[in-house]
Amino acid sequence: MIALVTGSNGFLGSHLVEGLLARGYEVHCLVRRTSDLTWLRGLPARLVYGDVTSQESLRRAVAGKEYVYHAAGLVKARSQWAFDRVNFSGTAKLLWACRICGVQLKRFVLISSQSAGGPSPDSTPVTEEDSPRPVSLYGKSKLRAEEEASKYAGRLPVTIVRPPAIFGPRDREMYPFFKMLNKGIVVLVRGERCASFAYVKDVVAGTVLAGESEKAVGQIYYISGERDCTWREFAETAARVMGKRPVTVSVPEAAVRVLGGMNSLAAALTGRARMLDWQKAREILQPCWLCDTSKAKRDLGYRARYSLEDALAETIRWYEAEGWI
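^ that's the sequence the OP posted. Answer follows.
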């Protein structure tokens, strides 16, 4: 079993590489010459130099591969064009390379995001059958990638997975939350906001199942944890694991909008994208981000193995061991 993993040096991608190696795959990691390879060091995986924006490098990368797990993508950018250049066009070029090279793929797995499907405004978990309603430029770029992948139905065995908010060791997006909690502070936006949370190792397990199941060809799956909760409950659970009794700071929605707008302006002036810009603020201010994993359970036999408490404990221990908190 020979697999190519794009985005392999990142948070989710590096965990996916480890998961595939544990299942006996020969894993090839698509990386750039300038990539930080910290999380790949010491792993018995092969490096393939290339870039999802480079058509020719992708043709070389997919040659001889039986599985392609496409985890590469931008999570912050200053414009729709910048997001699309990687998330949409990069996916299109990778699909084209697989098709034009005559690769006999067993599966092409696109790792998308719940952002492509959108939030759950009435507190009912969204399903794969619901019409997509992305509320951010990032979500729109991921949906365009999904739509492009769907065009290859009948020509390539494509499967799409949509994880919600992912956390775990090596994650830098939710790291500031844990860092602040370690200092005894929790910042929450006013109003109850619920979400589905996914531990990175559960996402990897579900993604590999999707890649190996014949039922999954041409399908989309939400892959998440077993327990949905509010951000307050998530913070309280993390605080108990850390042995903290934090002070909660309640932030009005207007403040999130202002901060997002200021960061977007700063990004425009400096040329450096910020994580909390006005687009991310739109996502944060949605009442609910819930997803239904019933289809993955039925088709793939997927079950989250980690409780929220155990997943948070493992994450926090890693942050502590690495000196991040």
